[in-house]
From TrEMBL:
Residues 1-39 form the signal peptide. The chain crosses the membrane at residues 375-397. Keywords: ATP-binding, Disulfide bond, Glycoprotein, Kinase, Membrane, Nucleotide-binding, Serine/threonine-protein kinase, Signal, Transferase, Transmembrane, Transmembrane helix. This is Protein kinase domain-containing protein. It comes from the Eukaryota. It is found in: Membrane. The lineage of its organism: Eukaryota, Viridiplantae, Streptophyta, Embryophyta, Tracheophyta. Pfam families: GUB_WAK_bind, PK_Tyr_Ser-Thr.
């Protein structure tokens, strides 16, 4: 068409000037056509893309864009009325159900049923009829799909033909198709059966552009069960015959059918529309996407466009065909191995070590094993199984060992003690970070700093070795320590029993031991008030121990190393032994302890009493007021030196720590020294008990606080004199003597 217009234009230009207006018209038409093709090769902004939920893809279109250009290719206009799409250029109102570009160019529409009805009282009197005459598209775009539709005829004693196409060779139409029905009565008609009794159907030929139903019938007289005949083209699979349809209300009934469409030259009778090979070199060629291809139409002349294999989209738009990501859609594009997307396709290969008997897109992949590979795999699996077996056996042996240690160390009893946490061996490693923070040496082994899951700081230390003979004693002692809760006694938090020697977990004392505070760092100033608080707190802790139950408890190793201080210098009695609670007098076969603090009576007789703790506490009091070690200057005993000075001078003034030996506090220091000497008396009956010691210290602090210092005789404090030593109740329970202190550690837990 474009070349014909161009030839006309050249011829016209050679004519006279009087024909200028006629010459100009073909040129303008050619330019307009080229501009239209170019503008519609892209989806113009402002074009309506759907109507009533039906997508309207190009070359179809509705109306114009914002610039006034048509949104459709000529012949593909769609009207949207009251939110319903309709075909244009038809002789009937045809609503559209669906428009598709890919994979097939189709339009799905609705057509009314053709019908004719008779007066059953006469031979062949017609009471009404509609022949369903429709011409789908004057531009020749559409053809009734012969592959997707079929013709149905309903009625009895009837012949119906479909006529379609323009007259040809003396005939009224180019195509004829139809079928014959016969039925004697309604009982002979069956639902679902459409083979000539009340219903028949036939395929239709290709190329149909219009539709006109022709009815030829025999007599309907006396056929009240089938007074009408019906004919319609319907989409295959969309209709199933029912006997009740012999009385259908055809005026209200429409059937869906499919129309094929293609790019044609616009002449409905022309058979020489452009093929793909002819159209490819034309300016108006519509397959504009670079990944599209042309397909010759099979239902009538012309061609249509489709996206190449591996692409999808709209081939009538520039860049309309886009690459399919096949690896994301394995249900549609199977791959039994490794999928790799490529432009327009995808590669499917088996994973390393696997192969397929054919194409892995179809055939499954299976492992590729040579004999050597199989042997290697067998050996590897065998060794692996052996390693796993040995590992499991080792784990079971270790678990059995841990269970045995747990039971040996009294775990079955201690796990039921309220307030006592039982730590596992692995849990203990996490707490101490595998013993990475070493604090020092305790009575029975090394001590490590740890942190619980709630960030509580703890001290972790070894206990005594437990066997069957001592298990009952150990469990009883741990239970007693757990229940012994006092602010001046170091709290036992838990223990670990999955080790040879049980490990105990105590609260952490941030300032170490009194030994370190007094003698470790001599530059640290310690006020008299602080020393009094430490003495009173320590005495309160020992008094609590001595009166915890009706069976009194002896510490057995009271010394500065075993008095720990927290961040507020609050004293905590620690390392008070792990012997079980005894019900009678306890005579030690071997006296163990720090010699400067051991009660001489205990050393001579082996009898450990509460007054033995009082003696040791007296030695601690002397260290508090003198800040001298129990044994100083290599071989000087603090106790003996203080007693000599006091007997000679009737005062300990010369030995008091100069940091606190103020004249105004001298009486207070003398009273503390006198209390210490009372605790150190050789006769245990002359020694005060810890209750009296604590009370006297409290009164000393009270007198210091209220300024009662030098206005009172040195041997009186409150209403109690130093000579008035109350008798002690005979002790009946005892802890074993604690071990010798190790001075390399900053406090014994």
């Amino acid at each position: 068409m474009q070349s014909n217009n161009l030839a006309s234009a050249v011829a016209c230009l050679r004519n006279q000037a009087a024909m200028a207006k006629a010459c100009l018209l073909p040129v303008l038409l050619m330019a307009a056509l080229a501009a239209t093709v170019e503008s519609l090769s892209t989806l113009n902004p402002g074009c309506q893309s759907s109507c009533g939920g039906v997508d309207v893809p190009y070359p179809f279109g509705i109306g114009t864009d914002r610039g006034g250009a048509e949104c459709f290719r000529p012949g593909f206009r769609i009207d949207c009325v009251n939110n319903t799409p309709f075909l244009t250029g038809t002789t009937q109102v045809i609503p559209v159900l669906q428009l598709s570009v890919m994979p097939r160019p189709e339009a799905r529409v609705m057509l009314p049923v053709a019908w004719i009805c008779y007066n059953t009282s006469t031979w062949s009197e017609v009471t009404g009829e509609y022949h369903g005459v429709v011409d789908f598209n004057s531009a020749g775009v559409y053809r009734i799909s012969n592959s997707s539709n079929e013709l149905f005829v309903l009625g009895c004693n009837t012949i119906i033909f479909i006529n379609s196409g323009r007259p040809s060779r003396g005939y009224d139409h180019s195509y004829h198709a139809g079928c014959i029905n016969y039925c004697k009565d309604l009982q002979s008609v069956q639902d679902g059966a459409c083979s000539g009794i009340g219903c028949c159907h036939v395929d239709i030929p290709p190329g149909l552009t219009d539709n006109w139903m022709r009815f030829y019938s025999f007599s309907h007289q006396g056929m009240e069960f089938s007074p009408c005949e019906y004919a319609f083209i319907v989409e295959k699979g969309n209709y199933s015959f029912l006997a009740a349809d012999l009385h259908m209300d055809a005026k209200q009934r429409k059937m869906p059918l499919r129309l094929d469409w293609a790019i044609r030259d616009g002449n409905i009778n022309s058979t020489d529309s452009l093929t793909c090979s002819q159209a490819a070199n034309r300016q108006e060629y519509t397959c504009v996407s670079k990944n599209s291809e042309c397909v010759d139409a099979t239902n009538g002349p012309g061609y249509f466009c489709t996206c190449k294999k591996g692409y999808e989209g709209n081939p009538y738009l520039r860049d309309g065909c886009i690459n399919i990501i096949e690896c994301d859609r394995l249900a549609e594009f199977p791959c039994n191995g490794k999928c790799e997307d490529t432009e327009g396709s995808y590669i499917c290969t088996c994973h390393p070590g696997h192969t397929s008997n054919g194409d892995p897109k179809i055939d499954p992949c299976h492992p590729t094993f040579t004999l050597a590979a199989k042997l290697a795999l067998g050996i590897t699996l065998g060794v692996s199984f052996l390693i796993v077996f040995l590992l499991l056996a080792f784990i079971m042996i270790q678990k059995r060992k841990l269970d045995e240690l747990f039971e040996k160390n009294g775990g079955k009893i201690l796990q039921n003690v309220k307030g006592l946490t039982i730590f596992t061996k692995d849990g203990l490693k996490k707490i101490t970070k595998d013993n990475s923070d070493f604090l020092g040496n305790g009575s029975f082994g090394k001590v490590y700093k740890g942190t619980l899951s709630d960030n509580t700081l703890v001290a972790v230390k070894a206990s005594i070795k437990v066997d069957e003979a001592t298990k009952a004693e150990f469990t009883e002692e741990v239970e007693i320590q757990t229940y012994m809760i006092h602010k001046n006694i170091l709290k036992l938090i838990g223990c670990c029993l999955e080790v040879d020697v049980p490990v105990l977990v105590y609260e952490f004392a941030a300032n170490g031991s009194l030994q370190d505070t007094l003698h470790g760092n001599r530059t640290q100033k310690i006020t008299l008030d602080s020393r009094l608080d430490i003495a009173i707190g320590s005495a309160e802790g020992l008094r609590y121990m001595h009166s915890y139950t009706t069976q009194t408890i002896r510490h057995g190793d009271v010394k500065p190393d075993n008095i720990l201080l927290d961040d507020k210098l609050t004293p905590k009695i620690s390392d008070f032994g792990l012997s079980k609670l005894l019900k009678g007098e306890y005579f030690a076969k071997t006296v163990v302890g720090c010699m400067g603090y051991i009660d001489p009576v205990f050393m001579k007789t082996g009898l450990l009493t509460q007054k033995s703790d009082v003696y040791s506490f007296g030695a601690v009091l002397l260290e508090l007021i003198t800040r001298k070690k129990n044994v100083y200057d290599e071989n000087c005993s603090l106790i003996m030196e203080y007693q000599k000075v006091y007997e000679k001078e009737r005062s300990g003034r010369s030995m008091f720590d100069k940091d606190i030996a103020n004249e105004e506090d001298m009486v207070i220091l003398e009273e503390i020294g006198k209390l210490a000497l009372d605790c150190l008396k050789e006769n245990i009956e002359d020694r005060p008990d810890m209750t009296e010691v604590a009370e006297r210290l409290v009164m000393i602090r009270r007198d210091k606080k209220f300024g009662k210092k030098n206005n009172r005789k040195a041997h009186h404090i409150g209403n109690i004199t130093m000579d008035d030593s109350p008798s002690s109740t005979e002790v009946r329970a005892i802890f074993s003597v604690a071990s010798m202190a190790n001075h390399n550690f900053s406090g014994n837990y």
